[in-house]
Amino acid sequence: FRRKLRRDRKKVEKTATKISSPSIAEISDLAMELLGKVASEPMPQSPEDKEQFFMAQVSKGEALSSSGASAYPEAACCFFQALKVYPNPVELVMIYQKTTPDAVFKLVMAMMAQEVKQKQARYFDVFPPRDSNVRIKDKSKMEGKTKYKHSEDGVKSDVVVPNRALFATKGVEQGEVVYEEESVVSALLPCAQNGKFCYHCLRAVAEEKAETESTEDVEEKVEETESTESTEDVEKKVEETEPVEETKKSSATFECEKCHDAVYCSEKCRQDAYDAYHQFLCPSSNKTAREFAELTQKSHELAPILIAKFFGTLVDREKKKEIARALGVSDKGDTDEYTTWEHLEIMRYLELIPTANDATALHKLGEVMSASVPGLNEFVTGERYTMLKGKLDYNAFTVHTEGVVPKETPETHVSDTMRDDHTKSAVGISMYLISSHIAHDCDPNVQVVFPDGTDKAAVKALKSIAADEELRISYVDPQQSVEERQKQLQALYRIKCACKKCEADLEAAKAEAAAAPAAEDKAETVEEKSAEAVKTIDPNDEGTPSFAAVAASPTPVSAVEDKAEVVEEPEASPLKTIDPSDEGTPSFAAVAASPSPVEAKAEEAEKPEAETDEEEYETEESSDNE
Known about the structure:
The chain has about 625 residues and is mainly alpha-helical. It has 26 helices and 14 strands. The radius of gyration is 43 Å and the shape is globular. The N and C termini lie far apart (about 140 Å).
């Protein structure tokens, strides 16, 4: 018996030592063991039972934590079970971090991490929903190629990098919609924040024209009624008519009652926005919110606003899901076992370098939301903030609209990265859980459209798609040159595109570049021949007759006939048809055969008898030349 006690005591001491200073691998192994232990225990269902269960588990965990290190594993199990039934798990984790021993907290977090891994392993079996007609698959496994993550110094690790993509589960014809999807979070672009678009769903707000009367119309009506009504009745009608425009305007708009800047298309959008995020982001609510809005405006990026909206929406959705479970309401879209944060963790993201502006925005974000989301400052570290920003940069989409959006200016420009094929005017930015997994292709087979005029997306087939065929969209404008496309993809998404369109365009560019030297050689040959041709009629060459000499030489016809005979008998010239009615106009042959004025003077002594005729001819020739 004493030996058994000694063995038990040594075992406890060994466990206590292991728990007080464990390695990461030991914590993970212990967490897996504890997770398997609590997995078989039944969980309460009704709100009353959950509340009693929560209080009992927390009290038991606190008592075990004070008993010493040997009781830490059991205490961690109690706190983990309490966490499972708490409405706001993120808030409770922050409380655990402040109130429980560090070893217990690490065990609880390790159990949560192991549970997440187990859920992630079966994530793609339940998401996307079957009615969406798509599935997410790992292309690396399909192709038999495994890609491993490398550290900054190039050392290969054991972490496998999945190459996930979205595939159709059934055939889709061209023009058909594959699936529709609500956004996780969205925001208007600064250029569209002009009161003409809903701040929540991004729909164009209908401009209701007030049925008012002009001053002239009112005066005309007053003159018409003066004869039949008293002055008091007329003045009363005018007073009732004047404020119609103001009343009509206020009743036709849905805006924030505090800031009056956020405009909504309906009362539902206004209430949903207030519940999720506008209650603490409204610039008129407090000084901190106003400073946060000014900071995001000066930084020319929407990431801080989107991250703030995301956390507000995350808490609001979990509350609504809990209410739905309590009421027994079945809604597949809201009561799935995965939280919005767990969906987000699956997405790809860009590894960004934190900036000074990120640190300032994170600090202001904590100040703005600390009252509404307790423990957010401790949960959203600088590393998590940068990760969220990287996920937005890689997965966000541009929302297009049929409405007229003012052009972007240097004041309204934003640096956020968005998947945009530039088919229509951009009104906002949004992120989606399913569509984020669609890969890029410069020759896409689907396109993300917005048929309702809101941030609700629909994926439409641009070509006929077979079952198990991968869906692909264009992250950039596919009409650009291959150089521009690849430059943008590398700079924005770190993608080296090798699609069929890029390969064909690059081959065409190479062929064009190869043909360019041949064209240059041909042009040089033509220039050389032209130079030789010019050289043969060089006026400086004594052996070559000058242009003047060639022009002054007689034509073959005039060489046989006498000049004077041609002048005296113009009707014999074959060029008389130029002007047959004018007897005084010399023929073209006569003009060409006649000597120039200088030559005429030289020959004047030799032909004195033709002086009169030559003078008249010179006058006619100069007139024709002019």
